Amino acid sequence: MNKSSKNGEKHRGAFAVGAIKKLARRLVRVRTGQGVGAKVKGPHTVSVVGCGEVVVGDGESLLGGMLREGMQINHFCGGNGSCGTCRVEVEDGLSNLARATTAEVVAGAASEPRKRLACQMRINGPVTVRVRM
Ligand code: FES
Known about the structure:
Blueprint: H1 3-31, E1 44-48, E2 52-56, H2 62-68, E3 87-92, H3 102-107, E4 115-117, E5 127-131
Parallel strand pairs: 1-5
Antiparallel strand pairs: 1-2, 3-4, 3-5
Bound molecules: FE2/S2 (inorganic) cluster (FES).
The site of FE2/S2 (inorganic) cluster (FES) has 13 residues, from loops.
């Protein structure tokens, strides 16, 4: 084995370790609900009927904001948009929501405009929602 092939193996090993670390960090973010949101930029208030208010930043999902604030909501898939357990009904402020994501369309949550997935919802202004129990 020559010196350059040893360096190549060393490179691949370092790349694999880096990729595993990156996946582990992502898994932790998803498990804790942090992976479903992004940096909090422009906070918007969401009234959750029967639970109170949560402040959600631009680019952050409603699920991320609710979990950060300690609110209870089912989220079995960890915010991947695949289980549908985080479904909410929008009672007010529909125009302040970003368009339904592909995951919401696939999950059938977007078949009615007021039914959305909290893990996929991105909010641009005040909204009132009711959590499906
Ligand atoms: S948490 Fe599974 S679809 Fe939202």
